[in-house]
Design brief:
The chain is mostly helical. Helices cover 59% and strands 11% of the residues. The chain has helices spanning 12-23, 30-40, 42-47, 58-70; strands spanning 4-7, 50-53. It has a two-stranded parallel sheet. It is globular, with a radius of gyration of 13 Å.
């Protein structure tokens, strides 16, 4: 199966900062800590067959993913 990991940046700290900004306020304060754990844990990258970064236009990410899935 194709497991695709989408991250806002290849840099883990930038990815965490962007994720934090996107999550904004939450009544569940541990959500940020959970996102940090997910982003930093090595099993996240190992599980993914493909990793794509969303710091490019959405159309480009779509083309990249489509290219992998149709190859």
């Amino acid at each position: 199966p194709n497991v695709i990991l989408l991250l806002p940046s290849a840099d883990p700290e930038t990815a965490l900062r962007v994720t934090h900004e996107r999550l904004g306020y939450s009544p569940w304060p541990d959500r940020i800590a959970l996102a940090a754990h997910f982003l930093r844990h090595p099993s996240t990258a190992r599980l993914a067959k493909h990793t794509f970064y969303t710091d490019v236009p959405p159309e480009e990410v779509c083309e990249q993913i489509t290219g992998i899935l149709t190859a």
